Amino acid sequence: MTILKTKRLALREFRRDDLEFLVPVLGDPYSMRFYPHPLSPAECETWIERQLHRYESEGFGLWAIDMQDTGAFVGDCGPTVQMVDGIREIELGWHVHPAYQNRGIATEAALACRDYAFSELGLKRLIALVRPENVPSCRVAEKIDMHIEKETHHGSKGWVHRVYVTARS
Ligand SMILES: CC(C)(COP(=O)(O)OP(=O)(O)OC[C@H]1O[C@@H](n2cnc3c(N)ncnc32)[C@H](O)[C@@H]1OP(=O)(O)O)[C@@H](O)C(=O)NCCC(=O)NCCS
After folding, report:
1. Average pLDDT of 109-125?
2. Phi-psi category of residue 16: left, alpha or beta, with phi > 0 → left and psi -120 to 50 → alpha
3. What's the CA gap between 157 and 73, in Å, rounded?
4. Cα–Cα distance between 123 and 116 in angstroms, integer?
5. Which terminus has fewer CB within 10 Å in the chain: N or C?
6. What DSSP line would sit under 84-125, residue for residue?
7. Tens of pLDDT along 50-102?
8. Given ligand 1 and candidates 84, 126, 139, which is best to mutate, with the most ligand atoms within 8 Å of its CB?
């Protein structure tokens, strides 16, 4: 199911047969250096199942990003529910295949997801949880007009994350 299109990208719901293409994205040790560890193929399989469950229960989740011209799968982007300091928030997340990074793909996808979340999902506020060391991801948040609201301890390791925020105007 196609969710949205941008100039170069098409975002759609994940399918189970995306697994072989997702492994090089979430399993890349350098790209995933700000995570506790790169994901194994089995963890990527669980990750896809989690998105399928999110589509059912929330109506949204991390979506697959395909290039429109070649159809190549290049990453994921989309909103998910996260608990931050005991408050239910909607976070925009993004991951891009190492071979496609630094071409503006995450920014293009995140901008479109932000606008879709406000206009189609009716959300009023979106956050991004980013470790301060993750400069590329901080830049994506900043380029879609998010600002730092606070820092919090988040995730299985309790690492410090910036809470970037943007609100519907
Ligand atoms: C974060 C990520 C999605 C960015 O994807 P991308 O498509 O390369 O992002 P964009 O091209 O839209 O722009 C990213 C910004 O980061 C910068 N950037 C890209 N690679 C970088 C690097 N290795 N070091 C420093 N900055 C980098 C870009 O220059 C750009 O900033 P600029 O416009 O000021 O120059 C990608 O690096 C990634 O998948 N990382 C691993 C997963 C991850 O950390 N996800 C976010 C968790 S919070």
Report:
1. 98
2. alpha
3. 30
4. 9
5. C
6. ETTEEEEEEEEEE-GGGTTSSHHHHHHHHHHHHHHHTS--SE
7. 999 999 999 999 999 999 999 999 999 999 999 999 999 999 999 999 999 99
8. 139
**The overall pTM is greater than 0.85:** yes
How far is 165 from 169, CA to CA, in rounded Å?
Answer: 13
Distance, CA of 6 to CA of 1 (rounded, Å): 15
Ligand 1 center to residue 105 CA distance, Å?
A: 9
- DSSP annotation of 36: S
Q: Which of 29-65 are b and which e, b meaning 16 or more Cβ less than 10 Å from the residue's Cβ?
A: eebbeebeebbeeeebeebbeebeebbeeeebbbbbb
On the 0-12 / 13-18 / 19+ scale of CB atoms within 10 A, 11 is: buried
CATH of domain 2-167: 3.40.630.30
Structure-token pair, residue 11: 């975002």
Residue 47 near residue 126, CB atoms below 8 Å: no
Asked whether 127 lines ligand 1 (CB < 6 A), one says no
